[in-house]
Design goal:
With about 400 residues, the protein is α+β, with helices and mostly antiparallel strands. The protein has helices spanning about 5-15, 25-40, 55-60, 90-95, 110-125, 135-145, 155-160, 165-190, 195-210, 270-290, 295-310; strands spanning about 45-50, 70-75, 80-85, 100-105, 125-130, 150, 215-220, 240-250, 250, 255, 260-265, 325-330, 335-340, 350-355, 360, 365, 370-375, 380. Helix 2 (about 25-40) packs antiparallel against helix 7 (about 155-160), helix 8 (about 165-190) crosses helix 9 (about 195-210) and helix 10 (about 270-290) packs antiparallel against helix 11 (about 295-310). It comes from Novosphingobium pituita.
Length: about 400
């Protein structure tokens, strides 16, 4: 149902999620680090430096973002991981860590890079694989010390994080299922005159009612603003006969959801309905193209072929699809691999992607249907059921 309810009614219907996925176990994190050590050696490096952020959380469970203070893990074969962190953060660090590490701390007037260099000398490292997310000035200071040569650790981190385990899939399933419930609730509160900001606030509150820490992001656009993939500034009021585009998500144990729905509020012209149908066909074509052994770019090609047959595009020309068909997702909302021309990464079971071949008609409207899928031995599997029709979001059931 679109419209006909109120924000308070919908919030009152929501309660904390009961079917909660378990957290990643310490044993799985240890296995991840063992694999990273093996991949680091295969890369020709003696150690791996992982900076604070999604990759450090992947290995250690530490939910810290990057800051101006160096917080990093040095991982080398046959050794306990060495964690470099500010001395005043040790207590919080120990409370957040999910695996044992050796902590080496620095005071505010000391140089944390010196701790990294000393540790590299101790283990006899000659080549260090650097997290691509490490700020340049830290990497440059390590290089300038002349102790080790540096190589890009992206091949290591990408191979570790790109294929998800059963535990990761379960956490992502929960996050996406929760956001789908929120999407349906948000559609029901719409009425003429409601502002985008009111819908954004409701979506955040609804995610919280289900047990998430609010929305991880939220884009709500009405009318012409839907023609811009990430919207326009301002706070528009909804009118009868407009398209509504809502793109939002949450995180569960750091794992992301990211679902977009585009639907009609009232009656919309037939050409809008026609574009919506083409969008749905393109999304399904991308889903059908997913098979182990195929490449990421082949999925993008399948979606674009639908648009070209309908007279849209080609390539990134508008009216048509202005961006890639999809992105990898996990502990980062956008992460390798990508469903785009030129990404020849071979699809493997466990890879997870958004499927969102948006169609933009400049100056008028845009339609984006975004659901997520993961690769299985038989092909793709939806995390959540795609939208049913332009004026019917369907039931918020899990994908079968």
């Amino acid at each position: 149902m679109i419209g006909g309810s109120t924000a308070q009614t919908e919030l009152d219907r929501l309660s904390p999620w009961t079917d909660r996925a378990p957290a990643i176990s310490p044993a799985e994190r240890e296995a991840r680090m063992d694999r990273a050590r093996t991949l680091t050696q295969a890369l020709g490096a003696d150690a791996l430096l992982v900076d604070a952020g999604a990759s450090l959380r992947y290995f250690t469970g530490l939910p810290w973002g990057q800051s101006e203070r160096l917080v990093s893990m040095l991982l080398a074969p046959g050794r306990t991981p060495i964690m470099i962190c500010p001395h005043f953060e040790i207590g919080t660090l120990e409370a957040d860590l999910a695996v044992p590490v050796e902590i080496r701390s620095w005071q505010e007037d000391e140089d944390p890079v010196a701790l990294v260099i000393d540790a590299l000398r101790e283990i006899g490292a000659r080549t260090l694989a650097i997290d691509p997310e490490l700020p340049f000035h830290f990497a440059e200071r390590i290089r300038a010390a002349g102790t080790v040569g540096l190589v890009d650790a992206m091949p290591v981190i990408k191979q570790c994080r790109m294929v998800k385990s059963a535990a990761e899939l379960a956490l992502m399933q929960q996050a996406k299922a929760m956001t789908l419930v929120v999407q349906h609730a948000a559609a029901r509160i719409l009425h003429p005159g409601i502002r985008q900001s009111e819908v954004v606030r409701f979506i955040d509150a609804a995610h919280r009612r289900l047990g998430a820490s609010g929305s991880s992001f939220c884009i709500v656009q009405f009318g012409e603003a839907t023609a811009y993939p990430h919207g326009l500034p301002g706070d528009r009021a909804l009118e009868e006969g407009q398209l509504v585009l809502v793109d939002t998500g949450c995180t569960i144990e750091g794992y992301h959801s990211d679902i977009t729905r585009t639907y009609a509020f009232g009656s919309v012209p037939q050409d809008i309905r026609d574009i919506w149908a083409i969008e749905k066909e393109a999304q399904q074509a991308a889903f059908d193209a997913v098979r182990p052994g195929e490449t990421c770019e082949s999925v993008d090609n399948a979606a674009r072929a639908v648009l070209v047959r309908a007279g849209l595009g080609p390539d990134y020309a508008l009216p048509g699809l202005p961006h890639r068909t999809g992105h990898g997702i996990g502990l980062s909302i956008h992460e390798p691999a990508y469903l785009v021309r030129g990404d020849r990464t071979v699809l493997e079971p466990g890879m997870c992607f958004s499927n969102e071949p948006m169609i933009v008609v400049p100056g008028r409207f845009g339609v984006r249907l975004e659901d997520h899928m993961h690769v299985t031995a038989q092909g793709a599997r939806w995390f959540t059921q795609p939208q049913a029709a332009i004026d019917d979001l369907g039931g918020p059931a899990l994908a079968g």
